[in-house]
Recover the amino acids of this structure.
């Protein structure tokens, strides 16, 4: 056995994710050995871990290297996704501390699970091998299953976790099967090597292309489930509604970060030339397009008739997955692949801030027993909690895509990418459905500002939750007014160029 | 002088600052301080405007493009060529817009300080008003479509907040207010869809969103005129454009709105904005310029030294979208031109799956822009929100929904005149929409009883005039009418606010009085509507200042000589006439429908005067009404003066003594010539005596008719009916108008109900009912049942009794269990997931199987 | 060593065969689902033994870990979760006949399709050389040039699963 030197392994670039993963185990021990009256410190250790990982990511940002026998890749794409995932984790920690306490579920394991899941998302963003994609996906998901069921003695929460687990396991199977088929056709699981061997298969017209296409389809299904696109979305509202609100918040963002990172990486890096006939665009483009269109339509329309804020945000998150899916469809075109990938990144960042902010406020008005999540509970919030209401209004505007908010920046780039890829009908559907989305987002604002009624006292709006709101709020506005802050970071993102032999 | 233009960002910054102060510290401030902040912020924008205005006058009307250092490269991704800087364009068009926005805005701030007195959210109101100003100024000064859109959305947001400002009013009024706000928001979102599509298409086609690049010459005709004529102040300079040739007007000295004849060409300070701007420092580059363009400034002329009179020296990608569009449209079939970055561009624009000719693309862009304009400028089919938006406080109606925001659509189309000039079909559609809107809104205004609703429909109708003017290419007339309309419509709205205020106070007064007598008048207090003209009458004597100013506003709106409305409306009609008769444009003939709309205008406005001010008071409240406070009446007086004099901004040539010889002070075609520096296809038309006489006769006839019907205290008969309503012959005409042509009902039937049903259908049927119930019951349960039966029947040889029943029971038990417990749905989800998997695989395999 | 004409291998083969087939019969014939699940585990265990006899210790280990450790437990878990089912005694219905016929047909298909073509054509000395050993497999998991990353991530995965188990178990503990 040759023992590779550490330099060969290039472990340095893996540090952000590895640190977080190792930190998790340390965190477990810390939690176990902390005296009971100091247990509340666990959350702060977790936050510190996230911040250290954030700083490590910044130090590594912009490199373009592979590590660990080509299974791990650290480039700007990874770096940006890591930053988004870590931001989401940090905000979630702020949301969780008081929420878990007041609902009687304060247990240190929660933070370990959260960090493990975050590490999973980060590994997915760095995965350069189908095997890693799969195990990272599981690392992302399994903690989420458990966290969804984290609420003690709450049938809804347990049911939520159980449903998510069963369906999640079911869909993971498709991913594995898809990977196996691609392995069968190409003899490798490494993304670059898959890319290299696809050309020959396509040109020779060998029957292996069937395995490749079915494999790609199954991978789309497996990841599509994680990011909740139609028709793999059914679990979302039930699970979102039942899970504890901070978990829902993280789930709505973290799972999408990991899922879209892997989807973009696999489709754009490994399968861009999976074409049939004389076309330039790979066979998966049409499928992604139709999935995106369906997702936009179903997500946005069904959200209108929801009366529970968590269910509404669930359908809203489905709809937003549709917008990111538009970018994935645009990434099929080799000429716009990089721009589309960048637009997806910016959208994810915008969505992360905005959605976490919206969930933070939903959490603030939620009662200890999990009730108080009806849209009617927002009535009069502008009078009882003007700052929260103003922030919520901005989040809603951002989700609608009004200029000078992050949501507009994200939509702007995604629509641009879609237009540049020539997918005009999809762009039109995107714009039209975002018009539709105004209906249900504005309803919240109308309830808060323009309806008579006693405002909720927002018992959950503790200082920590407020901080989470402020951070999300600042992010939403900053990204809206100074998009250049984010666009500069994505400048060097290339998924296609990294393929060049 | 360049440094003067550099203060442009302040015009946005100052009201933003006012917003922040009033928003965050407002609740702690007293009314006086809040209003002081708001008014100061607004007034200071007017001061900034004055500086910008004098900058343009001192700089030969040459535009400046001002970067904001901290937002440099607002949105920038060099690798795909996406570069959208935060730039403000200071040119004659944007400065014109800024002028009346800041001026009317300031007056309305002052008015609001009195009107909103005692409101619990006084400071918030001023915060919103300031915010509105900031966004409106972003809209008009942005040098790219995205900034325009930011402003566009921003003013929409403020409008939304302000319409719903009184959401907490009791007895369902608040609910109505918030619904009106929501309606406005949603209607505008549909318009925004158009704007977004226009922006995307423009970016796709031209690769930039900049309206103009810093080095670009905006209007070559005017540059030539400047170069050969040595600037202004000289008669007989080269004709500015084709229209000038026909009209026979000379190149007239563009003087400022302030009547600033105080600077002459020779005294003007000649400063270039940047070394690459078309105008150079005198003498500095004189030789080079003379070499390049022999016609350039000759010695002895004190005019500006022109480096370039056109854009031929610039490559394609160095141009803004308008100039690019014109270049592309001039290309022949199959011709290409160099972009300047190594690539070429041709007539055919590639959209991935298909290609479109540049003409088609421009038509699409302009039609999408029109959709945007129908939303913001309240045209058919999206106008329905504006009348409802009158639920907001009256200063808001005056500022946003009459004078400024609603003109944004017209402004945008005038700004894009180069595109509309190239798209004849779009222009025709624009005209048709404008005329239809002007007619139908004018008709509806006839039958309303709410004083503000009449004005609202009147606004829609007048905006129709402006839109129609854009359609026939009368961009100057559209802008002219926009300005005069801003004056007199703001005046009328503020006047109506004063009336409402007075009647409300009168009502309280009367009510207190009655209260002493009877002590049980609660119900009456709730149902009294101070905006209903049936409750008014005879206010002439109670509110003399309001009456006098309102009368001036009415005569101006009706288009009576010599009020402002006469000049501007007449110019629209005259230009349409010229377009129809001389150019034979179909759009011109369509626009002649505006004559009818003009007559309607005079009719409904006089009806209003009769109902509100003349006759005798019809209620206690009107009896007890009193004149408003000075902070409300002073703006009325100022606006009344402007409504009287505003028309002299653009005195047509050939009018003779009918302008009281004021040409000497204001000049002829002052506004049009001034605007011509930034509006390339502006049409400077001569006076058409015939048109003026016809329109005047129509207006006077309409007023006389209205006087016959409503005058002599007959405005409302004893049964509370309108005379037209009381007369069986005219009842249907009135009823249809009173019912607002059933627009809202038609929309409800056509769109709102189906939309709600679709959403409910998707939610209930497709997502829940279909997947959960239908799919589960019909497919799984029935399938299971059916298979069970199928399998059991042939084999059921009587060995085991009741096996079939057993399966049936089992099935029922399982399906019942599934329906009872949510957990059961997991199976349905899993099956649906499986179907999705099969669908995705099959769909992806199809091309492979075919290929 | 031969005892009574039977080699230890043959003895073990017989034992494992009995376990496998007996377990399978137990699954098929037992009316109580929980017991059926236990019989399934017995059958799977027998199969693992057969793998050992075929010199495939890794497959045997996987059989025990994955099928018995994971899938067997999962089935038991699922049966237990749907509580009413633990006491449900399946009635003998026509469906059973159908199942039997379908299973029989499938077995026949396997026999004809997979076993028959190679039956008797292979002698022990023709058996393919064993390509990978358990040792090589183990090395590849920790070799930086092979699968160390997935392996480590899987270890994290297991950590997460264990935490989950603890969390859920403590749920019930606190409930009691």
């Amino acid at each position: 056995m040759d023992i590779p030197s550490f330099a060969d392994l290039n472990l340095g670039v893996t540090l952000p994710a590895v640190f977080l993963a190792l930190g998790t185990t340390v965190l477990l021990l810390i939690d176990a050995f902390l005296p009971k009256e100091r247990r509340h410190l666990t959350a702060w250790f977790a936050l510190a871990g996230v911040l250290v990982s954030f700083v490590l990511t910044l130090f590594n940002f912009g490199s373009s290297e592979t590590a660990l026998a080509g299974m791990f890749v650290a480039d700007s794409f990874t770096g940006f996704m890591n930053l988004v995932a870590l931001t989401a984790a940090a905000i979630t920690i702020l949301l969780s501390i008081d929420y878990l306490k007041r609902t009687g579920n304060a247990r240190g394991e929660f933070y370990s699970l959260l960090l493990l899941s975050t590490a999973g998302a980060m590994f997915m963003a760095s995965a350069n091998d189908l095997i890693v994609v799969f195990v990272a996906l599981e690392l992302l998901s399994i903690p989420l299953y458990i966290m969804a069921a984290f609420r003690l003695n709450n049938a809804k929460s347990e049911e939520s976790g159980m449903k998510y687990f069963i369906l999640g396991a079911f869909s993971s199977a498709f991913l594995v099967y898809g990977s196996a088929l691609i392995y069968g056709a190409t003899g490798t699981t490494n993304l670059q090597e898959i890319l290299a061997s696809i050309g020959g298969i396509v040109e020779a017209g060998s029957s292996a292309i069937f395995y490749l296409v079915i494999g790609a389809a199954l991978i789309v299904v497996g990841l599509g489930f994680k990011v909740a696109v139609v028709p793999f979305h059914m679990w979302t509202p039930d699970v979102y509604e039942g899970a504890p609100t901070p978990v829902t918040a993280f789930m709505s963002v973290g799972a999408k970060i990991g899922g879209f990172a892997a989807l973009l990486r696999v489709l754009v890096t490994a399968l861009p030339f999976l074409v049939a006939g004389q076309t330039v665009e790979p066979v998966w483009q049409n499928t992604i397009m139709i999935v995106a269109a369906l997702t936009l339509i179903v997500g946005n329309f069904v959200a209108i008739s929801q009366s529970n804020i968590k269910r509404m945000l669930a359908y809203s998150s489905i709809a937003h997955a549709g917008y990111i899916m538009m970018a994935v469809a645009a990434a099929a075109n080799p000429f716009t692949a990089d721009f589309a990938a960048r637009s997806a990144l910016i959208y994810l960042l915008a969505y992360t801030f905005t959605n976490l902010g919206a969930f933070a406020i939903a959490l603030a008005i939620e009662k200890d027993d999990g009730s108080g999540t009806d849209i009617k509970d927002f009535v009069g919030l502008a009078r009882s909690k003007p700052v929260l209401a103003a922030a919520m209004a901005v989040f809603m505007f951002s989700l609608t895509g009004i200029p000078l908010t992050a949501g507009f920046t994200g939509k702007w780039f995604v629509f641009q990418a879609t237009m540049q890829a020539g997918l005009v009908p999809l762009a039109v559907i995107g714009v039209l459905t975002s018009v539709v989305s105004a209906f249900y987002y504005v309803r919240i604002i109308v309830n808060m500002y323009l309806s008579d009624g006693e405002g909720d006292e927002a018992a959950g709006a503790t200082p920590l939750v407020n901080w989470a709101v402020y951070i999300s709020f600042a992010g939403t506005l900053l990204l809206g007014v100074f998009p250049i802050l984010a666009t500069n970071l994505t400048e060097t993102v290339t998924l296609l160029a990294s393929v060049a032999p | 002088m360049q440094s003067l233009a550099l203060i442009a960002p302040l015009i946005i910054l100052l009201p933003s600052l006012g917003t922040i102060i009033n928003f965050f510290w407002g609740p702690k401030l007293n009314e006086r301080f809040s209003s002081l902040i708001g008014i100061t912020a607004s007034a200071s924008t007017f001061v900034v405007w004055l500086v910008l205005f004098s900058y343009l006058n001192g700089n030969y009307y040459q535009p400046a493009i001002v970067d904001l250092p901290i937002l440099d490269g607002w949105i920038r991704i060099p690798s795909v060529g996406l570069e959208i800087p935060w730039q403000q364009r200071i040119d004659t068009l944007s400065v014109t817009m800024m002028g009346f926005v800041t001026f009317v805005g300031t007056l309305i701030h002052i008015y609001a300080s009195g009107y909103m007195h005692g409101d619990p959210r006084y400071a918030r109101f001023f915060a919103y008003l300031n915010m509105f100003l900031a966004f409106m100024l972003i809209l008009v000064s942005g040098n790219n479509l995205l900034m325009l859109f930011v402003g566009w959305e921003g003013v929409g947001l403020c409008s939304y907040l302000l319409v719903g400002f009184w959401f907490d009013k009791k007895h369902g009024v608040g609910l109505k207010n918030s619904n009106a706000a929501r309606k406005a928001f949603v209607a505008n979102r549909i318009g925004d869809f158009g704007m977004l599509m226009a922006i995307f298409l423009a970016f796709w086609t031209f690769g930039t969103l900049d309206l103009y690049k810093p080095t670009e010459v905006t209007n070559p005709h005017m540059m030539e005129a400047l170069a050969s004529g040595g600037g202004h102040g000289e008669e007989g300079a080269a004709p500015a454009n084709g229209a000038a040739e026909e009209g026979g007007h000379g190149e007239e000295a563009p003087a400022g709105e302030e009547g600033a004849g105080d600077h002459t060409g020779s005294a003007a300070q000649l400063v270039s904005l940047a070394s690459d701007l078309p105008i150079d420092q005198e003498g500095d580059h004189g030789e080079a310029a003379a070499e390049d363009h022999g016609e350039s400034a000759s010695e002895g002329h004190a005019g500006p030294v022109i480096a370039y009179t056109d854009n031929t020296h610039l490559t394609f990608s160095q141009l803004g979208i308008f100039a690019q569009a014109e270049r592309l449209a001039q290309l022949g079939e199959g011709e290409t031109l160099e972009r300047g970055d190594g690539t070429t561009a041709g007539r055919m624009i590639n959209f991935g799956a298909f290609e479109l000719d540049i003409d088609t693309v421009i038509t699409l862009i302009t039609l999408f822009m029109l959709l945007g304009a129908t939303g913001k400028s309240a045209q058919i089919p999206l106008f329905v929100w504006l009348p409802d938006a009158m639920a907001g406080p009256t200063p808001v109606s005056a500022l946003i929904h009459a004078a400024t925001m609603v003109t944004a659509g017209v402004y945008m189309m005038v700004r894009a005149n180069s595109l509309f000039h190239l798209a004849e079909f779009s222009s025709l559609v624009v005209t048709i929409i404008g005329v239809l809107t002007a007619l139908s809104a004018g008709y509806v205004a006839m039958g309303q009883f709410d004083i503000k609703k009449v004005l609202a429909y009147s606004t829609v109708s007048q905006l129709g005039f402006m839109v129609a003017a854009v359609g026939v290419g009368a961009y100057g007339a559209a802008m002219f009418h926009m300005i005069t309309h801003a004056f007199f419509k703001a005046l009328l709205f503020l006047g109506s606010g004063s009336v409402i205020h007075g009647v409300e106070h009168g009502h309280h007064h009367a009510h207190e009085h009655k209260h002493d007598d009877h002590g049980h008048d609660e119900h009456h207090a709730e149902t009294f509507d101070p905006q209903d003209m049936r409750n008014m009458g005879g206010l002439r004597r109670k509110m003399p200042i309001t009456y006098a100013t309102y009368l001036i506003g009415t005569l101006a709106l009706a288009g009576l000589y010599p009020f402002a409305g006469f000049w501007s409306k007449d110019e629209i009609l005259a230009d349409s006439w010229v377009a129809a008769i001389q150019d034979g444009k179909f759009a011109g003939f369509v626009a002649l429908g505006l004559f009818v709309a003009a007559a309607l205008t005079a009719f409904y406005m006089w009806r209003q005067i009769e109902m509100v001010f003349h006759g005798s008071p019809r209620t206690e409240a009107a009896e007890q009404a009193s004149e408003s406070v000075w902070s409300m009446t002073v703006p009325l007086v100022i606006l009344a003066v402007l409504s009287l004099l505003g028309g002299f901004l653009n005195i047509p040539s050939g009018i003779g003594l009918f302008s009281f010889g004021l040409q000497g002070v204001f000049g002829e075609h002052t506004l049009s010539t001034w605007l011509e520096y930034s509006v390339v296809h502006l049409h400077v038309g001569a006076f058409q005596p015939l048109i003026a006489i016809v329109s005047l006769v129509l207006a006077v006839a309409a007023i006389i008719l209205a006087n016959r019907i409503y005058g002599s205290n007959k405005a409302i008969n004893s049964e509370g009916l309108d005379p037209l309503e009381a007369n069986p012959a005219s009842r249907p005409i009135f009823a249809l108008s009173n019912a607002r042509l059933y627009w809202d009902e038609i929309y409800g039937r056509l769109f709102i109900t189906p939309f709600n049903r679709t959403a409910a259908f998707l939610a209930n049927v497709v997502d829940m009912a279909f997947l959960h119930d239908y799919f589960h019951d019909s497919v799984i349960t029935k399938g299971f049942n059916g298979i069970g039966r199928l399998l059991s029947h042939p084999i059921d040889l009587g060995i085991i009794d009741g096996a079939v029943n057993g399966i049936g029971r089992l099935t029922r038990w399982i399906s019942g269990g599934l329906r009872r417990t949510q957990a059961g749905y997991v199976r349905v989800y899993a099956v649906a997931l499986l179907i999705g998997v099969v669908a995705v695989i099959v769909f992806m395999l199809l091309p492979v199987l075919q290929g | 060593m031969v005892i009574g004409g039977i080699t230890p291998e043959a003895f073990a083969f017989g034992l494992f065969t009995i376990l496998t087939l007996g377990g399978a019969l137990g699954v098929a014939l037992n009316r109580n689902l929980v017991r059926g699940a236990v019989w399934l585990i017995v059958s799977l265990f027998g199969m693992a033994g057969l793998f050992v006899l075929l010199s495939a210790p890794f497959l045997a280990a996987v059989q025990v870990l994955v099928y018995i450790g994971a899938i067997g437990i999962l089935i038991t878990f699922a049966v237990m979760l749907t509580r009413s089912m633990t006491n449900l005694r399946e009635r003998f219905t026509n469906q059973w006949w159908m199942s039997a016929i379908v299973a029989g047909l499938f077995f026949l298909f396997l026999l004809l399709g997979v076993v028959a073509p190679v039956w008797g054509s292979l002698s022990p000395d023709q058996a393919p050389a064993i390509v990978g050993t358990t040792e090589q497999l183990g090395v590849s998991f920790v070799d930086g040039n092979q699968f160390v990353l997935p392996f480590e991530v899987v270890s994290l995965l297991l950590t997460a699963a264990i935490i989950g188990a603890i969390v859920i178990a403590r749920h019930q503990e606190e409930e009691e």
Remarks:
- Chain B touches chain C through nine residues (CB under 8 Å).
- Strands of chain B lie at 64-67, 75-77, 82-84, 87-90, 279-280, 305-306, 336-338, 344-346, 348-350, 355-357.
